[in-house]
Amino acid sequence: MDACVDAEQPPVDRFDREAPDRSAEHRRDGAYAVRLGLADVSSIGTAVAERIIAERDARGPYRDMADVSRRAGLDAEQLEALAAAGAFSGFGLERREALWLAGEAAQDREEYLAGSVVVVQPPLLPMLSDAEQVVYDLWATGISPDDHPIRHIREQLDERGAIRIDRLRQAESGRRIEVGGVVTHRQRPATASGITFMNVEDESGTLNVIAGVGVWNRYRRVAREAPAMIVRGILERSPEGVVNLVADRFERLTVSAPSRSRDFR
């Protein structure tokens, strides 16, 4: 809504959990963007990112991928990670095209005469599908800002009756349900008497999952190792609207994009 970027905003009413969720209709960012830093790209890190920036500031903008390789001293693995993350889109290179060129660009070094490396013109490569885009994002940076891997298997989850997480606010408390998602956290506090707390995320939100000692031991391999899973259990919703799922079964879920959870920290 245009009014979302007005400097003067009306008072915020008391939060009503039963009201429709209209979040998607609003902008809260004033049309600004959040940029992911180079240091967060796989195989780059802080030192290499600082070297890339320092070289650009000292000698001017980079002209192309080979220029980045030559001046910043990047190897093929680092160039491929940057390509998968979309870092070379400013040179007019789509991710798949940039990945194709990364190996040849890595051969352009300061000790060689500039422009002496023979580059083969890449073929006309198809655009990445939405599912492939998620794979590239998660491999290169660990996050996917525009999409979610579960969205691409939603039809499969719907067929077996798994409920999307944002719809649990209307589901009956005390009912046995299934949800599918990627695991973002696993925690077992010392004071929890062996109970494990997990967070499962799909394309619509995050759900707290509570696993008792018995169900954890029974499904230990899946519960502890699976990056994505279908969880069955009893839905609990407090009067304040806090939603938990008390698990009684875990099942491994296959998704196209790799994911990694933060476990027991």
Describe the protein's topology:
Blueprint lengths: L44 H15 L5 H8 L3 H9 L10 H11 L24 H12 L12 H6 L16 E12 L8 E7 L2 E7 L1 H6 L1 H6 L2 E10 L5 E10 L9 E2 L2
Parallel strand pairs: 1-6, 3-5
Antiparallel strand pairs: 1-2, 1-4, 2-3, 4-5
Helix pairs in contact: 2-4, 3-4, 3-5
Q: What's this entry about, in short?
A:
The chain has helices at 45-59, 65-72, 76-84, 95-105, 130-141, 154-159, 213-218, 220-225, and strands at 176-187, 196-202, 205-211, 228-237, 243-252, 262-263.
Task: For this entry, give a set of tags.
6 strands; alpha/beta
Question: Can you walk through the features of this model?
Answer:
28% of the residues lie in helices and 18% in strands. It has 265 residues and is an alpha/beta fold. It folds into two domains: 38-141, no CATH class; 149-263, Nucleic acid-binding proteins (OB fold (Dihydrolipoamide Acetyltransferase, E2P), Beta Barrel). It has a five-stranded mixed beta barrel with strand order 1-2-3-5-4. It starts with 44 loop residues before the first helix and ends with a strand. 25% of the residues are buried.
